[in-house]
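Section 5.1 Outputs to date
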Amino acid sequence: MYGEVDWVKNLRAAGSAQIARRGRNTPVTVKELTAEQAAPLVRDLVGSIGFIVRSVIGSQFPTDPGAPSEAWLEKARRHPTFLLTPVSKSKYQVPSTEYSVE
């Protein structure tokens, strides 16, 4: 499901995607995060999700949310993480809002 799989390679190559949700397609631009950027983001996400979702992705991220940052950095190096930014519907350009991932 995760790691260096075909959808990851395709997303890197395309630099954009369409997210389908509830019958609607939303165009997005794609930025791959470094492991250093992704580790705290993934840690916080896994720590904030409910039991059902955690049971689905738990095999990919079994690290405890309270684990040291180094443990999450190791996981982030093995699991590509992307920042998806919706494209403005009016002009199909990236909105001027900047997203900072640190």
